Each structure stands twice: as C-alpha cells, then as structure tokens.
C-alpha cells in the first residue's frame, strides 16, 4: 500500500581525482591550518573544507579523495577549493582534474510499510538479523545498489555512481516490492 510520494536525497558523494602533480604534503600541512598529516599512521593528508562542508584525502602523488558533498556541483566546488589551497604553497596545478564518483549514499522514504521478515524470505541477496539491527540489507540484482530497508518505508541506498543510476535503482526496488506485495495478497 503506497501511502505517500517517494522521496530520496543524496547525503554523501565520495569522489576521486588526480591533480597530475606531486604534492609536498609536509609543506602543505605546515602552511594550512585546516589540515592533519601523520605519515606514520596514514600516507595521506586530511584537509577539511568549511564551505561546502567536505573533507579530502590528499596523497603525495596528487591523487585526492573528496567526501561529504551532497551534490556534484558541491564536489566540483570542493575540488576547486583544494586546488586553491595547494596553490597557496606555490604549487601550480595544470588543467582541470577529471572527477570520478566512487560512491553515492542517499536516504529517503519509499512511502510504503515493509514486512522485513517476509522480504527476507522472498528476496534473494538479503541479510536480516533484527536482534542485531532493525534494517534489512538488500543487494539489488543487476545493479551496484545496496539498500537498507526499514519497516516504516525509510531506506538508505549506497553503491551507485550517478544520480540517474540512483533514481533507477530506487524505481526498480519499488517495482520489486510492489510486485511482492501484490503476490502476497
């Protein structure tokens, strides 16, 4: 039974890029207050950006991993801020880096109550242990999407790499769930 309109909202995008230039991380850490660098524990420098609120791992090879953005425009804005910060120590970054999305995390509501016990039996690729965690984990076949499903219709989706693929996965999920509910009647 569909109660209300579906809603899905991107919560986090993890993206990577290469600056095509070696970065002196010690010099960067000494020059910028918004960084953490402890090479004995981890080979990357952590840079926190206030606006948009994101964090980045920067490696001496020039590879960066950015996390925390909620849209692609915010990812691009964040990468530009990283470049501006690096250029403060007189390192010129050649050209615009190609940004590649590694993962998107979204949450929302599909507007229908779910019987998780029943779904755990009817769907393949699920994990459900209600004593440990109240959600059902469902790997959607034919996609990279993995869903956390809750009995009240709330969902979390991870594994997609673009907004269209995310929306497609949610549509397919809902189609599968509606089909199972009709079959159960």
How many β-strand stretches?
10
What's the overall geometry? elongated
Number of domains: 2
**Low-confidence parts:** none
- Main sheet strand line-up: 2-3-4-5-1-6-10-9-8-7
List SSEs in N-to-C order: EHEEEEHEHEEEEH
CATH topology name of the largest domain, in short, is TATA-Binding Protein
- Assigned CATH architecture of the largest domain: 2-Layer Sandwich
Q: Which structural class matches the secondary elements?
A: alpha+beta
What is the mean pLDDT?
94
Q: Superfamily at the CATH H level of the largest domain?
A: TATA-Binding Protein
State the helical fraction: 25-40%
Oligomer: single chain
| Major sheet size, sense and barrel closure | 10 strands, antiparallel
Strand content: 25-35%
Cα end-to-end separation: 11 Å
For the CA atoms, what is the radius of gyration? 21 Å
Helix tally equals 4
Q: Give the CATH level 1 class of the largest domain.
A: Alpha Beta
């Amino acid at each position: 039974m569909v109660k209300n309109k579906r809603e899905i909202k991107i919560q986090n995008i993890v993206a990577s890029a290469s600056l095509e230039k070696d970065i002196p991380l010690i010099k960067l850490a000494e020059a910028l207050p918004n960084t953490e660098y402890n090479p004995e524990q981890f080979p990357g420098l952590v840079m926190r950006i206030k606006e948009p609120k994101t964090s980045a791992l920067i490696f001496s090879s020039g590879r960066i991993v950015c996390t925390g953005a909620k849209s692609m425009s915010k990812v691009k804005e964040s990468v530009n801020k990283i470049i501006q910060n690096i250029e403060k120590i007189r390192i010129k970054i050649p050209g615009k880096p190609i940004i590649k999305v590694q993962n998107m995390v979204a949450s929302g509501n599909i507007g229908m109550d779910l019987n998780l016990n029943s779904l755990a039996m009817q769907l393949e690729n699920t994990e459900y242990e209600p004593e440990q965690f109240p959600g059902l984990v469902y790997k959607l076949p034919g996609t990279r999407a993995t869903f956390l499903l809750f009995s009240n219709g709330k969902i979390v989706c991870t594994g997609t790499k673009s907004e269209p693929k995310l929306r497609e996965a949610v549509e397919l999920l809902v189609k599968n769930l509606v089909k199972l509910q009709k079959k159960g009647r």
